[in-house]
Task: structure prediction
Amino acid sequence: MIQIAVMGYGTVGSGVVEVIEKNKEEINKKSGEDINIKYILDLREFPGDPYADKVVHDVELILNDPEIKIICETMGGLKPAYDFTKRALMSGISVCTSNKELVAVHGPELIEIAHANKCNYLFEASVGGGIPIIRPLNYSLTAEKIDGITGILNGTTNYILSKMEKEGADFGEVLKEAQEKGYAERNPEADVEGYDACRKIAILSSLMCGKNVKYQDIYTEGITKITPADFVYAHAMGKTIKLLAQSKEKEGCFYAMVAPFMISKSHPLYMVNDVFNAVCVHGNMLGDSMYYGRGAGKLPTASAVVSDVVDCARHIGKVIMCFWDSQDVALTNIDQASRRFFVRVALEKESQALQVFESVSVIEAPIEGEFAFVTDEMTEKEFNEKAEEVGIIGRIRIEE
Ligand code: HSE
Result:
């Protein structure tokens, strides 16, 4: 029997308990031993909960219990999750986490501590909710040199954009729905401003190059400036708008960014709607591969945490390889990246815009008082200079 503890009995933590209970037989068979939840750590009491007798408030009970071999850290945030995780790993207890913030900030350090203590720090649930993406990058695509990852990595914003597009729904109301469904972060600014997707692409980018991509270095824009009018234009162009997180290695330069993009119907991410996430990975031998599933929510995320528990159970006393060095990667400024841009200006600026941007494709859409167009390919720097000269209403990058 392998004794485990769950730290944090919120949305994901209670999901972990539910998954382990419901799929007990499968999980025990695949682990090679029975998994038993001995403790649930939380500050709150849960009277009437079937697991109320397992709830403890003192982390020392868990960390000092030699029977505990695996901890599921589903607390979120850096404090006190960082200290608890570090102490657990130093005692040889494996930790499985959904905490993307902690993984993005302290990932390489915690992996190193785990390996030095013959245990594991696994984080499948930290990116893409229930989608297996960490494991494919670590164990499946090992024959590849991966040179590009593009994904929809935040369920809340994809849910909001999908509802805005299909139902013309109000931003605030859909965000409330996403919160009620357990998709959004405690502070939903992390979702809508792109910070959550930024941490997730930092994790994937680090696994892609085996070194540390600091999330603070990644250019990040959220979806708060996207309006229903943008979707009217997108439809007129046969496109949709998605919050993309991407990292690319090109001629020795490494770019990473998070921003809303217009994508066309032929793009593999076009059909990824609602809470679903998807990640496209490009390898130099395999070419494109894509991973798709529910990117947020209690049970999908919990399922990914429990898959790590099974992996840890199969590797008690053994290290599972993960290449993520603490050496920082120098990202190239996105000013140098080239692409086309969709642009909206006031109608009276039409001739000035045509003069400054030179060759453009005009977009016809039923929006009054505006002139809209798509530029030729140019660098972000060139675009920003021209946009400033004209004074624009808005712009959205185009992903080809
Ligand atoms: N708030 C996150 C999202 C939860 O919406 O994707 C899953 O990481």
Residues 16 and 306 are 6 Å apart (CA to CA).
